[in-house]
What we know:
It is a single chain. By secondary structure, the chain is an alpha/beta fold. The protein folds into three domains: 7-141, 3-Layer(aba) Sandwich (Rossmann fold), CATH 3.40.50; 176-346, 3-Layer(aba) Sandwich (Rossmann fold); 351-489, Orthogonal Bundle (Helicase, Ruva Protein, domain 3). Helices cover 46% and strands 12% of the residues. The protein contains 22 helices and 16 strands. The chain has helices at residues 29-39, 51-60, 77-87, 102-110, 124-153, 155-173, 186-197, 213-222, 241-249, 266-269, 285-297, 323-328, 334-340, 357-371, 383-388, 395-409, 422-425, 431-434, 446-464, 469-476, 480-489, 495-498; strands at 21-25, 44-48, 65-69, 92-97, 116-119, 203-206, 231-235, 250-251, 263-264, 274-278, 299-300, 309-310, 314-319, 343-346, 378-379, 414-415. The strands form five sheets. Strands 2-1-3-4-5 form a five-stranded parallel sheet, sandwiched between helices. Helix 1 links the parallel strand 1 and strand 2. Helix 7 runs parallel beside helix 8 (213-222), helix 11 packs across helix 13 (334-340) and helix 14 packs across helix 16. InterPro entries: AAA+_ATPase (IPR003593), AAA_lid_NorR (IPR058031), CheY-like_superfamily (IPR011006), Homeodomain-like_sf (IPR009057), HTH_Fis (IPR002197), P-loop_NTPase (IPR027417), Sig_transdc_resp-reg_receiver (IPR001789), Sigma_54_int (IPR002078). Keywords: ATP-binding, DNA-binding, Nucleotide-binding, Phosphoprotein, Transcription, Transcription regulation.
Amino acid sequence: MTLPSDPATFATSATDIDLPSVLLVDDEPRSLDAMRRTLEEDFRVLSAGSAAEARRLLASEPVDVILCDQRMPGQSGVDFLKVARQQWPEAVRIVISGYTDSEDIIAGINDAGIFQYLLKPWVPDHLLATVRQAVEARALRHGLDRLELDLRAGNPALRARRAERQREVRESFDFQRIERAPGSPLDGICDLAARVAHYDLPVLVLGESGTGKELLARAIHVASPRAAGPFVVENCAALADTLLESELFGHKRGAFTGAFEDHVGLFQRAHGGTVFLDEIGETSPAFQVKLLRVLQEGEVRPVGAARAVPVDVRVVAATHRQLADEVRAGRFRQDLYYRIAGVTLQVPPLRERPGDIAPIAIRLLHAVGTELGRSGLSFGPDALACLLAYPWPGNIRELRNEIARAIALSDADTIDATAFSPAVLHGQAGPSQASRADGLPAVGTLQERLDAIEARLLREALLRQRWNRTRVADELGLSRVGLRAKMLRFGLGDKPARAGDEPADPHEAQPSEGPAP
């Protein structure tokens, strides 16, 4: 590359026009040349032999970085950079000096806004790294300025975007999104929860594991005035007392071994929102005392902190235990129980609401199928009947796992009953479940409990005979008309039809039997 005769007009080739620009100011040509050779591969380099020449260049062309020598005739580097700061504030300023004059350094930092102060003799790698950092600092500063302008101008758009996101969350976790059949036992529970959601009362959700207690808690949150605040979840059974206290209330650095920094607890993070304490019945009496104080006082004291921090949260607690029984047994504090049980909601297990199994299973099939890359799946003729005959001790969580397993083992787009596990296929949940009389309500009249036993035996026979009514009637010693009446009585007559079932034997379509269910 041929250098121009006037060093003040020196620049790299036109192909480097998009590179960051650096202006070198030094009255020594050899120093200018050395700095140029160090920087020219990464930057578009301009050079000037004096402060006056540098001002003329800056007036005609903006630069990203000014690299100036301190000792120059006519005007020192710091004095020149003071002027540059006023007239060309966008340029990042660096000064080089062979003297360690503290007054010059202080003046350069305070008055000229110096980014870096380099000492001679400089090292090429250090010089290059410093200029790169200066260019990056300028880009970051410009980015922040643009962001601030965007934020000022974009407040309406940001508010609209936030409102849209909140609307999406409400729709995703609304009470209507809790899948259930018409007339489900969940209807009354959801109606009560929706009424309670508008009031800042603590809620206790009871129910077996996997029944959807967290989903109900989220629906309460999004329907409440705290919907714009955070929804924070903690499983109390997953952590020991000391870790649970730190996770919920926070801790200060050095409070215990391993506390290397301050930790903000979940109660503080949920300020203005809702804390969902799952499996609260598993906490120890010692921790229950600490939690009770937080709920009574409305403040938390992080572990190792000298003072408490006020918090404003709504607490929704859940457990698979019957806490009233735990209170009577002395395993759960009565005062804490009344503090969290402002309103108590009991979510029934899946076996006590068999009408919900089909809609939940269909929705799970679509959702899990999409997650696994198998959209457009459907259940075969006997698949839903098989699901209906199983008691589901693990509730919806077990149902989801079973459907995911069936999807993985099925190559076709139609899920057949043979894809289910042996336990589900045969309608048995194992000895422990059988000993509890699957499907039987815990209370009820003699006739109600006998009806439950009869319905269970009928479901098992239908499943064994692949829904062939002729063989089921023969097995149970019933007439076909009597079998049909019992199926209608126990709500079993229309199950295969929902899955697209065809008559299992040639007599199903006979007019004397009526339309096939």
